[in-house]
Design a protein that fits this description.
Length: about 550
Amino acid sequence: MDDVTGMLLPTDLDEALELRPALLKRLEGNTKAQQEQIELCRRSIVYWVNWYCWTYVIRKYGEGGRVLKRGEFDSHIPLVTWPVQDAALRELQRCVESGDDAIIDKSRDMGASWLLVLLGVHYWLFADKLQPAEIGYCGRVEDDVDKAGNPKCLFWKADYCISRLPEWMVPGGDPSRFERGTDCRSHLIIKNPVTGSVIRGEATTDHIFRGDRLLFIGFDEFAAHEHGTAGWQAASDSTACKIGNSTPIGPGTEYTAQRNKGLKTGSPNVITLGYWDHPDKGQGRKWVIDEDGSVTGISGRGYWNSPFFEAESQRRDQQDLGQNILIDHTTSGDLLFNSTIISQAMKQTTDPVRCEIAKKDGRWQFVEAPRGRWFTWCAAEPDTDTNYVIGADPSYGKGKANSAACVIDRMTGSVVAEFADPFADPSSFADELMLAAARSLADSAVPHSLAGKSMGRARRSTRTSSEAITGSSTTSVKLVDVPSAETACTAGIATSGPSASCLASSGEPSAAANAQHRHMPCWPRCWNTSTSITAVWDQATCAKNSLAHSKLTVTG
């Protein structure tokens, strides 16, 4: 039964094939009854779809999720929605009416593109002439929106739907007016000559539907849109309701970003259409846990198992399974590291201790702090026989992105500490890292490499390591030369000022310094005048040459 009208609905395909012709026969020539049906359809999109809409099926599943062969099913069938589709149509309509964005998070073959098209055709067909509806659809390229003879196109689906309506329901009563090439059906446009409603289509660009004022804009297969971020943003100027529909193709898309935002904040509204709610694919389903990640790619993940899923898991790899079946926004993409390996590694992790670098017992060291910016997995006193590598990624320090650093044990490859602070600008970030390297980690080793990306306009001079440690006044110094191996091995990084022999008046390496250090492998690659944070120390070379040489460039 329809929740809105209280009228009965066909419950399955066989019932629809029996009841629909009988209804249409009773309505022939009965204008009053036809108008009553139009009013019922206007009030309820679910009533309209289940009594008057058809769908084109290219793949159908039988018992146990078996894919039926061609000839075992009809491709043109009355559309009888499933409960999950009824709920989706109602929620999409609510989003349109209230001006809320929506994301359809779906498995393959859940009819989501058809639902998106039917939503638009319903408004196009039944909107009042005093308030006509303008609807927009966009795809990755224009041919995905409107191309003759291509069933995957949104406009092909709209044409199919309109062509199979009874004549008395078609605007003007003449279905021929909506054939391609007519005044009401041109490329990327379908007009309603009675109400003035229009369905438009475009490819997703940076200026999508510029200047239009649309009831809603539907993004089909949104995850694959090359200009998805710019298109989603641009559409906000043309409509109050954007609807993104797709299966995931990895974590780095605007579709996934909007879906994750919706799950966290409630906007956009996330509508899930999973295989487990499909009447055939979900038969015999039961909830199981993938303990070792061998099925889903993530150990400990739960999923709905069914005969259909078991069959698909045998014929698909984990990426394919994640994208088209599981709606997994992680395993569906091309990851740098295999998700199974990541999930197994996660089981071996321990919780970090949050710390700040502070003076304790007369020296700078990691001190536990509940809201500390450092996350450490090593003992309070690092291993003195270990070398550490620090990688750094500075931000502008304005709260929008973290200045981040990672400390890795060079011998084992394990992460021993991390730093994150969105309010650490390049200058304070450099100081923090120099404190960590020169004091907290100094007794064990000096970072072999500490590098961060260019900061562009944020270029500024910052303190040397010695100034960061002692708190002396700021000077612009680019080179620190430590005259003895003992000093370097004890302090880690220079704790004295730059020697005069190593600095020309311009602040660049002097000719004498170049001559003195050109034999050292670290010398030519150390000098860095670009906007970055860099510290390099080659302990083996320093010891061999009986000269501890540490060169530091710190510019913001």
